[in-house]
Amino acid sequence: MEMPRLPLAARRSPGTVLGSRIVFYVLLTAATLLLWSGAASLTHPMFLPSPLMVITAFVDMYHSGELVSGIGASYYRVLAGWLIGAGLGVPVGLLIGWVPMLRRAVEPYVQFFRFVPPIAFVTLAVIWLGLGEASKISLIVYTTTFIVVLNTMVGVFTVEREKLRAAACLGARPVQVILHVVIPATIPHIITGMRLGMGNSFMTVVSAEMVAAESGIGYLIYNARLFMQTDRAFAGIITVGTMGLIADFVFRWLVARLLYRYQVKT
Asked: Which of 62, 137, 153, 177 could disulfide-link 97, Cβ–Cβ 3.0 to 4.6 Å?
């Protein structure tokens, strides 16, 4: 009897798959730079700087120290605000999803504030907390908390009722049901909310640094706009995107290592 043939992707070794991905991304990057250079040659550098100009701006900002200090300041604000927001959002989301009366009382406020962008609170944050780190971090906490709360709450809603009934039939107390049934089933939604919150944290920190900061990548982009230094603005934008990719990669790596038994797909 002839054995079924595996798909081509399944027959490739891990090294071959990794090598093909590297080649693909190298070619994709080269094509992007080629198209960028062609578009830049057709317009004024102030409108669209060439890749070489942006690389030169990177080097100048690195040697001056402002790029490294800006990355450090933005990463600190994002990490602090995101961790605090996630730490608040997970238990609040579990509580709201588990207690119907509390959900009816709190959900209108959650739904209301999730539509108010954090940039709308920048002025109030500066008035209440000053120009220090507290105002920027509080805005990131705000934007992260509501996203994590909503995703966690939805995760509680999707827990299979059969599992809850089975746990109750086996004599599990409500606390045991939450710890051993609800939370494990909700972890994928929590992880999704944390990833979405991280993305929004980077958007928030750049907006806050443009308005009320003297350091950070957003501050560098804002200064570049003031002096019409488009190449430095592009360098700042690319830096923010790279910072986000690195943070998301590290988070996914940690989730895969620490929560592998829950089979969380990231």
From this structure: 153
Q: What is the pTM of this model?
A: 0.86
Rounded Cα–Cα distance for residues 164 and 201 (Å): 35
Non-local (6+) Cβ contacts of 97 within 8 A are 103, 152, 153, 154, 155, 156, 157, 186
Q: Give residue for tokens 């070489």.
A: 52
Closest CA to 156 of 82, 83, 89, 201: 89
- Tell me how far apart the alpha carbons of residues 223 and 235 are, in angstroms, rounded to a whole number: 12
Predicted confidence at residue 266, as pLDDT, reads: 60
* Whole-number Å distance between alpha carbons of 42 and 34: 13
Report the alpha-carbon distance of residue 22 to residue 112 in Å, rounded: 44
Q: Which sign does the torsion angle of CA 185, 95, 253, 144 carry?
A: positive
The Cα–Cα gap between 184 and 20 comes to: 36
What is the residue whose two structure tokens read 């200090």? 69
CB-based contacts of 176, cutoff 8 Å, min separation 6: 167
What's the average pLDDT block by block, 10 residues per block, for the chain (266 residues)? 50 66 87 92 90 95 94 96 96 91 88 87 89 91 93 90 79 81 91 95 92 88 90 95 95 87 62
Instruction: Provide the pLDDT for residue 241.
Output: 94
Radius of gyration of the chain (CA): 23
Whole-number Å distance between alpha carbons of 79 and 87: 12
Q: How many CA atoms lie within 13 A of 121 on its CB side?
A: 20
Long-range contact pairs involving 158-164 (C-beta distance under 8 Å, separation at least 24): 158/185, 158/186, 158/189, 159/185, 159/186, 160/185
